[in-house]
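Here comes my example:
=====
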Amino acid sequence: MAKKVLTLVGRTAERAVLSEAARTDRASLVAVYGRRRVGKTHLVRAHLEPMASTFFEVIGQHQAPKEVQLANFKEQLEAVLFRHRLPELRSWREALSLLGDGVTEAAKRARGRPVVVFFDELPWMATHRSGLLPAIDHLWNARLSRVPNLAWILCGSAASFMLDRLVNAKGGLHNRITHRIRLEPLRLAEARDLLASRGLRRGTMQTLDLYMAFGGVPYYLLQVPRGSSASQAIGKLCFGRGGQLSDEFGRLFSSLFDDSGEHEKLVRACARKRSGMRRDELISAAGLKSGGRATRRLEELEAAGFLARFVPWGRKARDTSYRLIDEFSLFHLTWIEPAPPSGFGARGTKDWLSKATTPSYRAWAGYSFEGLCLEHVSEIEAALGIDETASEVGTWRYVPPRGVDAAAGAQVDLLIDRSDGIIHLCELKYAADEFVLTKAYAKQLVTKAEIFKARTKTRKDVVLTLVTTHGLKPGLWNDEVVHSVVTAEALMG
């Protein structure tokens, strides 16, 4: 029976890297890492298996002893490379020696096609004192790096392991990785395409609301039931009886990091200040000690896609602030975790539907939309027709000295400083309908632009850009104040 062809949505850049790694004129050793449920396994299988003459895959088993991992490995050797029974394997050195024999023979029979070796969830196999990483290092250096049509993929969710032991390795695997892929969540356009590929065709606002709760994590999006609205899906998955995502947050960090308690503390602290926190402020708020250990935890959270660094426009690197960009973590900490027990179960979906119309929800949606826009700056620039123009992107804030009227201060959600003499001050607004620019709000925007020009002394032209869900409703003040408008539809490419 023909093997089912896996569909793959988006991932254009990552597919290009895998195609490059699968060239048949030199061997490749590829590190693929990213957060839980982001689609690493699906990417490798869907893209490489159809083009491979031989596709050898072994999956690490969580918290299984070495004997079990070796037994699983032996089964795959027998099924894919040898087609006969093998003796019991006693060490990874012995197991990988057999792998080398099998791969070498498969490569000779490949006839111009690649041989793919895929170690999935490598951190679960390469446990302390297992000897697997030294065995990989020895096999690669001694034999397999000379097999020109080999692509060896090392994949894992544990960011700390993948960074320390492979990507930034100081020991035997130092500088051995030929390609690396940090797989991030899908972007908005890809998320909509993924839903559509499964028959879940959603409009702009429905897709936006799902994305603000689940982010671009494919597994989360694919749990959305057919025929349900975004609010119904969120209610069922996060608050309903047996909801697949109601306890997902508790599993996230333990599956990604060693000593995950410190990572979770940093995420929780960062979530409390939505505008972002400077390094020392964040570490202190998390109850951790400043130093190399805390810095490493922040780097790992960045690598896994939970935190991002933002340097305010016109400031130095030392003024960098960290912001929580993982939509699901923010949704969990805002809505799921604080919910009383009565908010789950049979009434969970109904209770969520009632919350989704409250001022609290609108305030949360406003912040979530702001974060989403900061992650989709390239789409905003494309909508403005400036994606080919060199620019510097950041945020800006002026807080007046104590005792001075607070109205003299100003904050810019997103600033795009173009090399051709124009600066866009972007207002990011989530709205259920077309945004209405009132006289009072128009005055605030004009004042903000004036404060910006006065405080920065810029000689560039400053224009106001509105990024909002449904665009700007026709009004008296629009043309005088707003230079350009970007809609949620434009954010989806």
The first strand starts at residue 28 and ends at 33. DSSP finds 22 helices and 13 strands in the chain.
